């Protein structure tokens, strides 16, 4: 997921809002969602050979082929929708940063103590210079303020004109203890930029910093994987199930499995496709879209939404992002295209109540927003993950119960949507 903001307070569970009035529906037969198969799909997406599934990598291409084979094995006929990606941030070699100074004298640990900055200019060779808060010629300039926006670009340009060799900035670690890995960034500034833990930025000031962070921006081609299960009424409005399969990619020498974000949602969709393809046909067609480029700014869903609008289709969209950890309730973001209680809201609410899975309204900042912006009724569903954009986001930290609940909720919602009116 590109950004996570969970509003844990001040929200009512959907099952306690106007959407959930009345008794819960009577329990029906459960779909045979096979958690073992879903976990096997997830693990296959997270092996080191998949290289963290960043667009433009050989591992990403392996993941694409694997998912095509998974959907084909489920009896579907997937097609690839390709789109251009301007640039994926990628390290071409293990980064290095060492400090010699009065407060600190040692090599630092990449990703735990220092990291590449997405606005950095290329750094083809090591840069060694004193670190100064005065932005002196021939020095690294220590900047403690924001490193975003046009103001930072203008500051970097003024430093470059004064002969500064680079910029050192602060970056806080996430809950995993790592400096978050990013695969997209705006236009680079005129100088190399290296990020440090805030307490280390203080310690390196006044010392000599030697850094080599070979960050490059590589054009890539994204690939959405789309397959449709026909319905008994082929002209009926389709149901669209989506999840992104791309990840942030591995570092040189360090693997990022990207299990919770979002091999988990991808595995749920693959198993959902298998279950529905072997069941009696539904009245409405169901399209499965395994989306690419979410970590690049939801590029794949933006491309797919445009394709649907050009074909004058308006599906009900359910997006699953992060289904690796169940925190007692499931976050749901409803699209602005469907502000009043409608079929999609009613289907989610009824399914949650029938299964005993509490739902609550909260931000889910993922591909669902692209479909909502295109005018489609949409909902983003997120259970959570133990870690985010971290080497610790591994299959061992995935809760089987969370995957199972996400699968049950998805299947029940589809069946509710497809039920005769």
Automatic annotation (TrEMBL):
Entry's Gene Ontology BP terms: proteolysis
InterPro entries: M28_fam, Peptidase_M28
SUPFAM superfamilies: Zn-dependent exopeptidases
Pfam family, one: Peptidase_M28
Region Disordered, residue ranges: 1-27
Entry GO MF terms: metalloexopeptidase activity
Gene3D superfamilies registered for this protein in UniProt: 3.50.30.30, Zn peptidases (3.40.630.10)
Domain of life: Bacteria
Leader sequence segment: none
Residues in Peptidase M28 domain copies: 224-413
Protein name: Zn-dependent exopeptidase M28
Protein's organism: Streptomyces paludis
């Amino acid at each position: 997921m590109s950004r996570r903001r969970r509003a844990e307070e001040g929200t009512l569970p959907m099952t306690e809002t106007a959407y959930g009035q009345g008794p819960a529906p009577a329990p029906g037969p459960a779909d045979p969602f096979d958690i073992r198969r879903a976990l096997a799909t997830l693990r296959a997406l997270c092996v080191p050979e998949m290289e963290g599934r960043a667009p433009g990598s050989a591992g990403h291409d392996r993941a694409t082929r694997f998912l095509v084979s998974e959907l084909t094995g489920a009896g579907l006929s997937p097609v690839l929708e390709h789109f251009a990606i301007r640039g994926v941030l990628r390290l071409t070699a293990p980064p290095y940063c060492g400090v010699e100074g009065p407060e600190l004298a040692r090599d630092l640990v990449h990703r735990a103590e220092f990291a590449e900055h997405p606005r950095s200019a290329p750094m083809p060779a090591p840069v060694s210079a004193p670190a100064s808060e005065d932005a002196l010629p021939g020095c690294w300039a220590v900047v403690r303020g924001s490193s975003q926006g046009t103001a930072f670009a203008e500051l970097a340009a003024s430093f470059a004109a004064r002969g500064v060799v680079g910029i050192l900035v602060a970056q806080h670690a996430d809950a995993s203890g790592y400096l978050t890995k990013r695969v997209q960034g705006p236009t680079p500034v005129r100088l190399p930029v290296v990020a440090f833990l805030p307490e280390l930025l203080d310690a390196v000031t006044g010392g000599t910093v030697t850094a080599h962070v070979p960050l490059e921006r590589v054009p890539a081609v994204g690939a959405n994987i789309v397959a449709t299960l026909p319905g008994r009424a082929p002209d009926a409005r389709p149901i669209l199930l989506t999840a992104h399969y791309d990840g942030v990619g591995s570092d040189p020498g360090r693997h990022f499995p990207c299990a919770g974000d979002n091999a988990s949602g991808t595995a749920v969709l693959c198993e959902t496709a298998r279950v529905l393809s072997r069941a009696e046909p539904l009245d409405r067609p169901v399209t499965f879209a395994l989306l690419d480029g979410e970590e690049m700014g939801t590029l794949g869903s933006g491309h797919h939404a445009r394709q649907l609008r050009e074909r004058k289709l308006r599906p009900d969209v359910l997006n699953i992002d992060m289904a690796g950890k169940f925190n007692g309730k499931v976050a749901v973001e409803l699209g602005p295209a469907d502000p009043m209680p409608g079929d999609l809201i009613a289907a989610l609410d009824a399914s949650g109540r029938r299964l005993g899975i509490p739902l609550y309204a909260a931000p889910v900042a993922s591909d669902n927003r692209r479909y909502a912006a295109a005018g489609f009724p949409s909902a983003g569903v997120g259970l959570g993950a133990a870690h985010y954009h971290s080497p610790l986001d591994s299959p061992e930290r995935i809760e089987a119960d969370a995957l199972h609940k996400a699968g049950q909720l998805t299947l029940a919602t589809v069946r509710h949507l497809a039920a005769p009116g």
